[in-house]
Backbone:
């Protein structure tokens, strides 16, 4: 009977919540650390360099829109987690949840890195010397988080 009831468990709601939280948190880390604290780049700093007040204002607005998206992703993650918490068929696993967050955080890095840094070229992780190395490192770090997160989800402890 125990093995049969385990088959009825659905980890997907917990995984979805973790992925959305990871996407939002990944964006917040990028925006807070790289945009604000280190000031390595802003959303449009490669297209509109911070050389005059108009460009500074435009980059500030786009950084704000970026943070609004991060906030929205995080709120969706919290809402999904809340819904999952009310379900009896969702197995609670710290390993699955943390793995999902890492997966989402890495997914943010890979998608944002490919689109903004490589395809659109609107900014780079750290412009200037070794710019491509910083961009590739950002992508590798994101891919590593995806792999680690996926492995944590797949090897979760059933009885947790």
Residues:
């Amino acid at each position: 009977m125990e093995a049969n009831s385990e088959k009825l468990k659905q980890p997907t709601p917990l995984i979805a919540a973790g992925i959305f939280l990871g996407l939002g948190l990944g964006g917040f880390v990028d925006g807070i650390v790289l945009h604000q604290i280190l000031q390595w780049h802003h959303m449009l700093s490669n297209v509109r360099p911070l050389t005059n007040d108009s460009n500074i204002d435009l980059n500030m607005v786009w950084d704000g829109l970026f943070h609004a998206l991060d906030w929205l992703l995080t709120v969706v993650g919290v809402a999904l987690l809340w819904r999952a918490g009310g379900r009896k068929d969702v197995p609670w696993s710290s390993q699955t949840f943390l793995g999902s967050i890492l997966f989402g955080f890495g997914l943010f890095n890979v998608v944002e890195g490919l689109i903004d840094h490589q395809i659109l070229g609107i900014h780079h992780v750290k412009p200037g010397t070794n710019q491509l190395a910083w961009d590739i490192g950002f992508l590798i770090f994101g891919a590593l988080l995806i792999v680690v997160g996926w492995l944590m989800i797949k090897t979760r402890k059933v009885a947790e």
The chain has a mean pLDDT of 93.
